[in-house]
Amino acid sequence: MAKIERHFNMEVPEVTDWRNNKDFEAALKKAGLL
Q1: Cα–Cα–Cα angle for 14, 31, 16, nearest 5°?
Q2: For residue 15, which of 1, 4, 26 has the smallest C-alpha distance?
Q3: By residue range, what is the domain housing residue 15?
Q4: Out of the domains of life, which is the source (predicted)?
Q5: What is the pLDDT of residues 1-25, one digit of tens each?
Q6: How many domains, in total, are found in the chain?
Q7: Per-residue pLDDT at 11
Q8: Per-residue pLDDT at 22
Q9: Across the chain, which distance is largest between two alpha carbons, in Å?
């Protein structure tokens, strides 16, 4: 993940509970992908 973060100069948010759609949506919004 560190290589991806450095390449795109962006922090990748961590989703703590992979079964929680709201966490995924929040991470995608933070990354500007939603």
Answers
A1: 15
A2: 26
A3: 1-34
A4: Eukaryota
A5: 789 889 988 888 888 888 899 998 9
A6: 1
A7: 84
A8: 93
A9: 28
Q: Which of 9, 4, 11 is nearest to 27 (CA)?
A: 11
Query: Can you say whether residue 9 is alpha, beta or left, with left for phi > 0 and alpha for psi between -120 and 50 degrees?
Result: left
pTM value > 0.70: no
CA gap 1, 27 in Å, rounded: 15
Distance, in Å, from the CA atom of 21 to the CA atom of 15, rounded to the nearest integer, reads 10
Three-class SS of 13-32: CCCCCCCCHHHHHHHHHHCC
Distance, CA of 32 to CA of 34 (rounded, Å) = 6
> How far apart, in whole angstroms, are the C-alpha atoms of residue 13 and residue 28?
8
